[in-house]
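Progress against Task 2.4 (sequence-to-structure conversion) is shown through the following example record, which the project officer requested during the mid-term review.
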Amino acid sequence: MEHAGSWQNIKWAYLTHTQADIELQSKGVWLFEKPQTATTEKDVNDGSRLQLHPGCPIVISSDFEDRSEPYLEYNDNALTTYTHLPSWTNDSRSIENFAGIVPDFQSDVPLAEYQTIEALGSYVWRHDRDLLPCSAPDCKKMLSDMTVSTIICLGCGPKSIIRFCSVNCHLASLSKHVAECWDPRLLINKLIDENTAPPRFSHLAPSLRDRYGYRTYQNYRQRVAAQYAGGRYSMFNPATEEATILVWDRKFTKSHHHELPFDGYATEMESRIERCLNIALFDHTNTAVLEHLYRLLQLCLHVKGAWKPALAVVLSRQFALEFSYDANTSLRVRANEPFCECEWEGGAVQLHESMCSSRYRGHGEVFQGQRCVRDVVGMLENKHWILRAWRRQHRTEHAWNRRAMGIGFPGVTVEEGWMPKLGKGWVGFNGEDDDVAS
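Structure tokens generated for the chain above:
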């Protein structure tokens, strides 16, 4: 039986009636006879299958020769499967291990699906049966998707061969993986049994991707860091690459936004950083949002008492390498102007002298026809589902697929049941192209 890992990790296998069975049994592997499968070109209905093919849990009808890959759909003429309970239903091991220790002991419909495909000569890759190696250099661990600590690459998706045993292994692989991430050649080249995917995969959204294909190592590093840092920006030590996550100081009470309590103000500012960072990672050409993100990070470091000339150099260099953005092109950055709430609100907060408010009201062209940075950010989130999916600090919606649909975004018309095209790394070999960066 073909297997992604070594025999030491196999819990069960089909009998091959060769010397291999003896070795597997000596290692405590449970062996079962592979179910018989019958094929016919006759139209076999549910009532006649047992009479026509007694003892066969699977009957395949219709012609299958035109397809290079197995395709299962019960209402399709290309392939129809009929099943009854397998012969080992009353096996004591089935009863004792019904919780999933032995993958074959599950409901008869998915069981029929993968057994049909294997009977046709193709191997079915299963999340609860197969193992993949950790993709980090020099790590030899074999990983199961059913282990909670197993990490997938959100760029490649769960249908790829990329797995990591820990965050450290993932981060240690960035310089190598940046060149291969999203490569379709990394897909698992087998039909994958969807029924065995762990539930936690449904809580994961595809990685943000630059819509123009821009990607540098530093840009990729920031994407992955934001994934683990809850959408926050990270500063990296140029010598050691050690990351420092910029978290807003909740003791900072100086706010021009009087509608929010000071703890709410910190939450609001962290949300702005996340939303602007998402857009910067999605569109590195949006200078209005990049300037505002830089100013927000500058303020974050100022209120923590950490802003120094040397740190300014590091932040400017990171922006140049991550987004191809020169912070010194900003007049406000060069002049070291104090941060003002009007930079986000566009002069909507009537708490300053008229000169301050008017200073930020004349930026219509800079802000892409919108009144202020806030409106630019809202417009882009309403337009691009991936930005909504990655707005994890949303006040009311905590599920990425609901945010992607537009739930919780007043400017989006919600289409019930709509889902974006996630790409083959997320849906398998017969999936459509993705629209993550469209």
